């Protein structure tokens, strides 16, 4: 079982707008290790998920490293919001390349639209594979 933390399109300002974290200006100056930031919220939710027995979490590539530190080596960390090297992040506010996600601690990367919406999906998939083989 996996738990979704914070969708990759959300930012500190988005979480502040819906009342999950403090004001946008406070969250920008706040430390990423507290719950008054997107990363802090991701880590808080990951700890809750771990506490109820989830096998891992779904989070952005940018949080893979901190999550690995919190959840340990056996947890699954699935990272959507993966962009092709040199490509657009699309609607993802917190994205990263496949190799960056894996290097940070992701166990799985989801490349979805980067490949399926590419003009040449086969070439796009080859780019993903090449990035992972570096």
Please explain how this structure is put together:
- By secondary structure, the protein is α/β, with parallel strands linked by helices.
- The protein has helices spanning about 10-15, 25-30, 40-50, 65-70, 100-105, 110-115, 120-130, and strands at about 1-5, 55-60, 75-80, 110.
- The protein has a four-stranded parallel sheet, with helices on one face.
- Helix 5 links the parallel strand 3 (about 75-80) and strand 4 (about 110).
- Helix 3 (about 40-50) packs parallel to helix 4 and helix 4 (about 65-70) packs parallel to helix 5.
- The longest helix is centred in the N-terminal third of the chain and has 14 residues, at about 40-50.
- The protein is globular, with a radius of gyration of 15 Å.
- The N and C termini lie far apart (about 30 Å).
- Residues about 25-35 have low confidence and may be disordered.
């Amino acid at each position: 079982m996996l738990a979704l933390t914070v969708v990759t399109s959300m930012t500190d300002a988005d979480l502040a707008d819906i009342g999950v974290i403090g004001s946008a200006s406070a969250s920008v100056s706040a430390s990423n290790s507290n719950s008054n930031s997107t990363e802090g919220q991701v880590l808080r939710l990951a700890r809750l998920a771990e506490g109820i027995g989830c096998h891992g979490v779904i989070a952005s590539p940018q949080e893979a490293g901190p999550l690995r530190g919190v959840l340990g080596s056996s947890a699954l960390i699935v990272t959507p919001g993966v962009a092709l090297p040199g490509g657009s992040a699309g609607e993802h506010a917190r994205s990263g390349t496949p190799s960056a996600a894996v290097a940070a601690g992701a166990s799985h990367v989801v490349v979805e639209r980067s490949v399926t919406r590419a003009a040449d999906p086969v070439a796009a998939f080859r780019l993903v594979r090449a990035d992972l083989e570096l």
